[in-house]
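$ run holo --ligand "S-adenosylmethionine" --emit tokens
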Amino acid sequence: MEPDWLKHFPQADKSALQALLAEKAAWVGQEKKGFLRYRKPLETVAHIRAQHCDFSSEMVSIGQAGELDAAGQKLIRQTLEAFIPWRKGPFSVFGVEVDAEWRSERKWARLLPELPDLAGKTVADIGCNNGYYMFRMAAHRPACVLGLEPFVQHHYAFRLLNGLAGQPNLHSELLGIEHLPLFPSCFDVIFCMGILYHRSSPIEALKSVWTALKPGGTLLLESQIIPGAEPVALFPEKSYAKAPGVWFVPTASCLVAWLKRVGFQQVRLFCRHTMDSREQRRTAWMRYESYADFVDRHDLSRTVEGLPAPWRAFFTAQRP
Ligand SMILES: C[S@@+](CC[C@H](N)C(=O)[O-])C[C@H]1O[C@@H](n2cnc3c(N)ncnc32)[C@H](O)[C@@H]1O
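-- output --
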């Protein structure tokens, strides 16, 4: 069956997408522990729907405490706990506060002054995780936000949250940035945040973003960068800040050059900042190592590998 969101994308390669989605559905539909551990808790709250949601404040709020009795509250807490570790947040779900590893509201606040008008627009959020930013986008009345998130845990965390929130214009699929070629000229706005340095070919990734934007469409890009004026990129030998999946970490000017050479216009760096352990930290909802464990504790400008510690930078760019 055709997913509801596909009607917003007449240019998409429908048959290839439907075949891919059917394959993914069969994969996660298996009776295996790794899938059941998320599917089962999801089913236990399938009957619950929030009456009041608020996506306009820092804490994404889905349902209020008073909407459920004590047993319902307990069930919600247990279900949320089944999805630990929570990476992005904060959320308040029927009054249960999920203090995630990342203070994602800070990233949203940085890009808010540059947010294009999302009303009635088609939007992609690449690597949407549990959908924190998609809920924040929902406050701006987009026609459709499609999250691309290949990780099963994050995919089901979004399904849990939106099952409770019931937002008909928010969707997430088990897809990745590599599937963007199936969406030629489809999106008015693409968010690509925290993704590029995880790609072994960042130029190919940017090309696929360019192709998936409609002409005149806007890219909002956020990435780790290293400080420095030269247009160069760091290539860690094994890991970067303990992450083995990091390939190229550019300077801001290098990233601007990548965007321009891919064909983007009106490329603009609008914010950059250092990282710290107030924004990414261990909490009761994410009990593993976090930022403080990734940098040299005696010299916070270096990672544990002795490399320049990451900054974060935000860019806008247009497909002409
Ligand atoms: C560093 S997190 C960034 C999450 C979020 N976009 C943000 O800015 O906070 C990277 C996200 O990309 C997802 N991801 C991993 N492989 C991906 C791929 N091939 N395409 C798109 N997203 C991917 C991860 O599961 C994770 O949710």
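-- notes --
DSSP finds nine helices and 17 strands in the chain.
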